[in-house]
Amino acid sequence: MKYKIPLVFAFVCGILVVISEFIPHRPFNMLITTLQDWFMIISGFAILLGQISLFQANIKKIKEKNKDWPFYLAGLISFTVMLIFGLLWGTQEYRGIFGQGEKIQATVGMKPFDYLFANAFMPLSSTMFSLLAFFIASAAYRAFIIRSFESNLLMITAVIVMLGRTSFGGMLTSWLPEGLKFLHLPNLSDFIMEFPNSAAQRAILISAALGIIGSSLRIILGIERSYLGGEK
């Protein structure tokens, strides 16, 4: 019984959502609005459970002095500080338990939560993505090693697109006559991005959509039951 009720509930809700996409009239439009509200409420509880799980996992690793435990401690402290500041003084759009924090805003120019977000989180995020750029460059170098026809094609296409997006690429082919304007690197780059790249992206999106449809049908029809607690 503990498995049948969630299966029936998932089936009914899934069918109602699908029908509402094709019949956006009463009573289906009202039902989908209600289901969306329920989803937001359940998501709130899911976020709370995720936060509790985060605390438990980090505290366990800190107590056991696992490898890199200082990083878990730093993450836990950061999470706690941001949570406390958000609850006590709120964020830019919402007030906290202690109100808007006018005195603090007069001192630092914004609320504590927003101050840490703008002056700590954002610079750290920029640093992280800057480091990721080097990893991407390393991966691109390994991918561009000429080993096969596909590698050659990938390398040539990447070089054309990268050069075509710079002023240097335009200078390299500026000597071509007007009749060969389509061979200018900026034009070739735009052509590759507009047609082959768009076609490949749409194919990937269609494949992803078909995969989502298949997974959704498996859940609606009760074939996929892993969300019930491990039952297949």
TrEMBL record:
**Transmembrane residue ranges:** 38-57, 69-89, 120-141, 153-176, 203-223
Keyword set for this entry? Membrane, Transmembrane, Transmembrane helix
Record's keyword annotation contains Membrane = yes
State the protein's name. Answer: Uncharacterized protein
Instruction: Please report the organism this UniProt entry assigns to the protein.
Output: Cloacimonas acidaminovorans (strain Evry)
